[in-house]
Predict the structure.
Amino acid sequence: MVEEVSSPPTTTATPTGLFARNATGLVRQVSPFSAYVLNFIGGHPVQPLAFGLFFAFATWPGGNFFLGGLLAIPMVLAFSYSFGLLTSMMPRTGGDYTLNSRILHPTIGLIGSFCQCMANFMSAAFFGRLIVTLGLGPGLIGIGLVAHDQGLIDAGNTLASSKVWIFVFGTLLFLAAAGVLGGGWGWTLRLQNGLFFIVTGGLALCAIIALLTTQSQFITNFNNFAEYWTKSPDTYHQIINSAKQNGVPLGAGFSWGNTIPMIGVFATFSIFSWFTSFIGGEIRQARSIKTANIMALSGVTSLLAILLCAAIFLNTFGTDFFTAANAPNGMPGALNTAPTYFFLLSASLGSVPISILLVGLYLLFWPMLTYFVFLQPTRTMFAYAFDGILPKAVTNISRNHAPYVAVGVTFVMTELVFLWSLTNDSIFQVIIYATLIQLVSMGLVGLSALVVPWRRPKLYQAAATKIRVLGVPLVSIAGAVAILSAAFIWWLFFSYAGFGLADPTGLFIWLGGLIVAALALYFVARWVRARQGVDLRLTYAEIPPE
Amino acid sequence: MTQATGGSVRVPLEGVREEALALMAAAAQRGVLLRALGGAAVAIRCPSSAQPPLARVYKDVDVVGTDRQNREIQGFMRSMGYRGDDQFNALQGSERLLFWDDTHGRQLDVFLDKIKMCHELRLRDRLTVDDITLAPVDLLLTKLQVVQTNERDLKDSAALILDCEIDADRLAKMLGSDWGWWRTATEVLAKVDAYVAAQTDFARRDEGRANIARLRQSIDAQPKSIGWKARARIGDRIRWYELPEEDYQ
């Protein structure tokens, strides 16, 4: 019952076999593969596998990890097709801002995009902390443990506990992310794709090492490694027994109630595969359904890659051991580092060079991820400026095509949020706020998708692909599911303490502030432009030119 | 008429060929490296393009320059009475610039360092080969890379092959290193041949067909690269070209 109506291509064949072409054509710079990579980065398996996923085993015992992952797929698809189908109707710069401002209302577009920008500033700030606290610090400690080098261990501990060092390395991370955006698309895509191959290659290497290591070999190797530090011949089982004594439920039977939050755990990593929406005017053949399909493919493949790698690591390390090690204070004091997959594999191999290699490959993930979140504010600022909401100077580019004003503003805003985050003792509070604030914007895009056939019928009718399922536009179905998904994840965070939302009031203060700031910008800009003889409402009545 | 003087705003000329010549002359005077391409360049290069059956209406001016002079080109075009498309140039400006001649409702595309359409033609080192326009072989390559050929492409290609000395060595080397390029260009060349053959009243029909045959012989005689041979084994099963979008303006 799926029907598809395709509009005629813009270039048509004449009866003589020749084509009627009206203008010199343009091949946009971002290829389908680069678009796939960009959308994949937000849910790249390295992040959840290294630190974001396995706490859930101890937090929600009996929750089925794999079922949770599979049940998150409809959410991934809903957000991908909401953003993707709308972007294919309106392939412009600005993502949610451009879509919501044209389909719903300019103020909604601004409120959503303010949420989106702040979520990405917060995410970048979070990454600025994590690159030290879950990257450099544990990395050095891990290498030190393998190399029996107390100096490296001390250096790792100093880094991870020092706010000065966190600030320094976080700032360097932001500079690196800005550097990725510091050229034309040729430069950016070369770096983006290069980092993607290196980081993904590092993960693949770890998966292969794990596949070639049986669980019994791992236990023997890990115990041999750990004995030097713990003085125990069986640290592996000691970690499991300690966890049991501390009340960590191991080997719990299946629990549907605890599987539900597992869906949310996956969703927080895998529902962000639509970032090419922000560069809709720069991706190749963006008017086709390929735009949405690439987003969906990125989201689903990243999620399946997480599940596959998780299965491999759990098989090698043992579920009980991995659950115990990832529980609070799960690692013995003598092995005071994060039980990441690459640390455990390095420990198992007992090789310092491999340990350095795996840590190095893992660390390259952070500039790639931070570039990903830096891209959105720069393109949203471009779209603001194109609409006259911000001064045109925001779109200034340098001689080497760096959007230096927009990137500069993004860097400064991230630094400010980063400084604020350093005053917050719970670093996870920052990313929880970011996730929930971003979901507001994503839900609004869902609303745009739901109503576009009726709010903008000409836009919908002109779309290259209009798929209906049982007579209902696919874009509306995707929109409805996206709204429900956003609401569901909000509900999870407010219902399950394990997600760590400690201060809901603070969240609402942030949200209220963003709404007020967005409305203020709109009305001030409208007033300023009116004095210049420009009616901003007319700007928003039109689809922005390419 | 070619210079903006005394604060007066220059108005682009009505004739596309004349405007292209004026732009190239002014650019040369100001040290901006630009070369014409497209229909206007064919009109400048080829006398036969002024006569039937190869005459056609020229719609706009296309030029190619270097990204190194991106800012200078933008300033130059503004001084010549063109309005830059700020949004397009901000987003696509590392490879392409777009300007408008509002008086005549024409657009002007500036390609930077390369022409990336169905295939990619790198031109950074080719801009100084000839004056005013790209070298004839490069002009021909810009026509031969078009998969969805129209009659204008065929006329322009025929005019170039008839009136200009085509560097067959460069053409053959280009197509001998890239199977995709070869696949498209040889097909378009066959279309040009068929088009010329169909012009039964055209006095230079046989000369044109002979020139095309010579070019084809050069292409066939060129040793092919390993990459060319590897790609040839896959053949048409995988698309070998990009399809440019027209409606970006």
